[in-house]
Amino acid sequence: MQKAGMSGFLHLLYVSAQLSGWEFLTGNKTMCGIVAYVGHQEACPIVIKGLKRLEYRGYDSAGIALMNGEGLKVFKKKGKVAALESELAGRELHATIGMGHTRWATHGEPNDVNAHPHYSFHRKLAIIHNGIIENYAAIKQALLKKGHTFQSETDTEVLGQFIEDIWENNGGTLEEAVRLALQEVVGAYAIVIMNEAEPTQLIAARKGSPLVIGVGENEYFFASDATPIVEYTNDVIYLNDHEIAVVKNGELTVVTLNNDTTTPYVQKVELELAAIEKGGFDHFMLKEIFEQPRSIADSMRGRVNAADAMVQLGGLRDYMDKLAKSKRIVIVGCGTSWHAGLVAEYIFEDLARIPVEVEYASEFRYRNPIIKEGDIVIAISQSGETADTLAAIELAKSKGATIFGVCNVVGSSIARATHAGAYTHAGPEIGVASTKAFTAQVTVLTLMALAAAKRKGTIADSLFRQLLAEMESIPAKVERVLQAADKIKEIAYIFTYARNFIYLGRGLNFPVALEGALKLKEISYIHAEGYPAAEMKHGPIALIDEDMPVVVIATNDSSYEKVVSNIQEVKARKGRVIAITTEGDTNLPGMVDFTIEIPKVHEILMPLISVIPLQLLAYDIAVMRGRNVDQPRNLAKSVTVE
Ligand code: G6P
After folding, report:
1. What is the whole-number distance in angstroms between the Cα of residue 337 and the centre of ligand 1?
2. Which among 338, 383, 390 is the best mutation to test ligand 1's pocket, defined by most ligand atoms within 8 Å of the CB?
3. Number of C-beta neighbours around residue 355 at 10 A
4. Whole-angstrom Cα distance, residue 162 to residue 115?
5. Residue spans of beta strands (DSSP E) within 144-216
6. Beta-strand relationship, 594-598 and 576-582
7. In the annotation, is 637 catalytic?
8. How far apart are CA 265 and CA 244, in angstroms?
9. What is the mean pLDDT of residues 383-394?
10. Which of 236, 231, 209, 285 is nearest to 32 (CA)?
11. Which domains, and CATH codes, for the chain?
């Protein structure tokens, strides 16, 4: 059946897509950073600087499109933004409109050709794109039949050609062509388009991938997040899914895919420039590790008051009853956020006596999970953009669950997709390996559990007060751990060339062991595994010999004696043990090879302290091995593809 108002070509495409089924892209999955500018300033330096700020999103190739009296020019280069910058050096590139892209590919070669921007077939347009056009193969097939040829393997080039083709054949405006094309697109996207015929026009659209518009004085900025924008303006608009923004002759209009005009909501973004710069540290990751006393304090600010025995989370106030009465909590997240969820599982079950399941979002979304009325789903995400976590939220929502978010990035997709939530307020995290976001997530989740336990009456008043008081002492204790940085560096030096590592912990320190191992492998590329200490004898013990460093979190808690036994099992097989111990432990120094002491704290709160030396150890080893710690190979900060 032909859809109303559909051109012959669109109809052909619609049918072919139906027949072939939705094809899933294998050539070019991107999450990428987008930045664009139109106004009265030189666009090139603004775009390049913006791309550098967004490089954490992807960094295997970069490109820029600029337009002046000489037409629409595209430059692209494999590698980091610096490689593109060298390519541009010495060229006269004056333009007051431009856009750039930094790419992260999971499939298909990162090379100059596949880098964005892409020209359309007749080179009237250039397009940059973050996301996946899932039915790109069907669209490509239809265009090939019409005689089109393609330079790259990307879905993005297909979309650009598709838009141009509709524009040429329908005779309407480019905005209309974009709208019609996007109505046919299956998948996720944030796009920006430049039009050679309109030197003041930028068109952007989003569905499933973030796009922020900065509103300046007679100038506009488009970007994947606010970091490239805040040095120019604090007034931003978060484009919604299914919206198309058009800037032309200094005017911004926003329409939906159904052609309804919407009034964009301009809001102030509170992001300080210093927060997105290295501030004297060698790497963002180190800066972020050292920021933790402050970021943990920020995540508690206004939420805890031990003197008044008060804990509250404003965003969840209306939902506290629901949380306290819930029969079950399901926590979803990916990577480090999933580890924070594992910590929360112990705390919620222990204090609030609510059964908790923690799931990888990517598994949850594909296994027809059982969600019952009264279930609460907590989605944890630093970026608030992780595709699998977003999909898990939508699935849980469709099954009637109440969804809470724990996100760091204000206004992010996950923050907007959930019913309620709490921001972690850790400030921008730029290093790809998550550090301060983890401790802020654990802090906020602990506060949630404490609030739920208090309301349910499952926590003794004395313990409640003790934990609140101890929470307030955490920033100072983290500061004390950071003072051991030099000692940790010496230990790191000894193990710089280890080929494997095992991390062990029990109870709340088990997820910390997982997180320590993840940090090490992410940035040093050393193979590392985290295990519950007692589980070691069911397999990993076979790996232990004098070449195997074993990091054991052996703090003075209820499982201390058991962990000491596990250490003895490792030592009996000549493994080399680095133990994280509680200050004043006189037992372990004689038993293990190295100790790193951390302050005593109630065991419920221990992960906030015990993870810190593991972050530093991973960082130091990676630096000593000459790795790019802020941008480790193959990884990206914000994973907006499944
Ligand atoms: C990527 C990052 C990890 C992060 C994970 C989940 O893999 O490299 O550091 O833990 O995504 O991201 P999210 O933003 O949802 O916490």
Report:
1. 7
2. 383
3. 13
4. 18
5. 187-195, 202-207, 212-215
6. parallel
7. yes
8. 14
9. 93
10. 209
11. 8-21+31-272 (3.60.20.10), 280-481 (3.40.50.10490), 484-631+636-640 (3.40.50.10490)
Considering only CA atoms, which residue is closest to atom 15 of ligand 1? 381
Residue 362 one-letter amino acid: S
Q: How far is the CA of 424 from the centre of ligand 1 (A)?
A: 15
CA 635 / ligand 1 centre spacing (Å): 9
Yes or no: say if 589 and 583 are a contact pair by the CB < 8 Å rule.
no
List, in order, residues 6 or more apart from 490 with CB less than 8 Å away. none
Mean pLDDT (the chain, rounded): 90
Across 327-339, average pLDDT: 97
Backbone angles phi, psi at 184, to 5 degrees: -95, -10
Ligand 1 mutation target, pool 359, 365, 386, most atoms within 8 A of CB: 386
What does the alpha-carbon distance between residue 369 and residue 348 come to, in Å, rounded to a whole number? 21
CB atoms within 10 A of CB 11: 13
Residue with tokens 């005009």: 261
What is residue 132's three-state secondary structure? strand
Ligand 1 atom with the smallest distance to the CA of 433 is 9
Q: Which of 95-109, 251-265, 373-387, 422-436 has the lowest mean pLDDT?
A: 95-109
**E runs forming strands in 399-443:** 402-407, 420-423
Residue 544 φ/ψ, nearest 5 degrees: -80, 125
User: 466 falls in which pLDDT band (50, 70, 90)?
Assistant: very high
Whole-model pTM: value is: 0.78
Q: Give pLDDT tens digits for 66-94.
A: 999 889 999 999 998 999 999 999 998 99
Q: What is the pLDDT of residue 160?
A: 98
Distance (Å) from CA 316 to ligand 1 centroid:
24
- The answer to whether 571 is a known catalytic residue is no
3-state secondary structure of 615: helix
Coil, strand or helix: which one is 267? strand
Of 32, 44, 334, 407, the catalytic one is 32
- Centre of ligand 1 to C-alpha 556, Å, is 31
The tens digit of pLDDT for each residue in 180-239 reads: 999 999 988 999 999 999 999 999 999 988 899 999 999 999 999 888 999 999 999 999
DSSP assigned state of 30: B
Ligand 1 site residues (CB inside 6 A) read 334-337, 381-383, 386, 389, 432-434, 635, 637-639
